[in-house]
Amino acid sequence: MDEPKINKKMEKEIETLLKRVYDETLKEEVPERFLSLIDKLKKQENAK
Amino acid sequence: MTGPGTVPGGDPREEMIAHLPSMRAFAVSLSRDPALSDDLVQDAVERAWNNFDKFKPGTNLRAWLFTILRNIYYSGRRKAARESMEKLPEEGAVPAVKPDHDGRLALRDFRQAFDTLNDEQREALILVGASGLSYEEAAQTCDVAVGTIKSRVNRGRRRLTELLGLIEGDKLELTDKPTMAVVFAGRGGPVIS
Description:
The complex is a heterodimer of chains A (48) and B (193). By secondary structure, chain A is mainly α. Chain A is built from two helices and no strands. The longest helix of chain A is centred in the middle third of the chain and has 19 residues, at 8-26. Chain B has two domains: 13-83, Rna Polymerase Sigma Factor, Chain: A; 107-187, Winged helix-like DNA-binding domain superfamily/Winged helix DNA-binding domain (Arc Repressor Mutant, subunit A), CATH 1.10.10.10. With 193 residues, chain B is mostly helical. Chain B has helices at 16-31, 34-50, 61-84, 107-115, 119-130, 135-142, 146-163, 177-184. Chain B starts with 15 loop residues before the first helix and ends in a 9-residue tail after the last helix. The longest helix of chain B has 24 residues, at 61-84. The A-B interface holds A 3-7, 9-11, 13-28, 30-31, 33-35, 37-38, 41-42 and B 11, 14, 16-17, 20-22, 24-25, 28-29, 38, 41-42, 45-46, 49-50, 105, 107, 110-111, 114, 125-126, 129-131, 157-158, 160-162, 166-170, 172, 174.
């Protein structure tokens, strides 16, 4: 089966779209639960 | 070891906070499920925190965190597969996305196509193409040879071009329909070459 050819422009477009998809989540505010989790882990350790 | 989350004299593990956004983005691309991905990140943070002594200072903390996260993801998948005897979808089993473009590639089409790639191709493309890890770091994260990562990236790109119905010479523009509607409002519509 012939594989589709990818030229440099297509490769670049795919990378740009990948980054856009990835960046959508990256730009979201980090949910509070993670910061609370880190606080909890620190407290647990300090209590030992 | 320094980084954007480093507090001088503070706990180096707090650097993880700076990597939470990229951990979430990687988890979403792996699991394709935002709720599950936050659970994955939570498990990964706990595991990394409790095993921080295994992190080698001077190496890439983000890559190390990604390794932990993907191990949790794959171990969960294997467990679920054993429990339900589910058959994992094979590449090619998913029907190709019919592209909704006339010379332009919509972001929605791309996301749909990306989600149909297999796990290995999705993670290789995200690690190298979006999160900026080197091929070597991505290979280490996935515990495979550098050549394997390169091959997965290439196969993933080729698969995307198939799914999106792209052929060499297609004119691609990074514009989705709503954006184009705004751009061309009052101009008598787009000129497609």
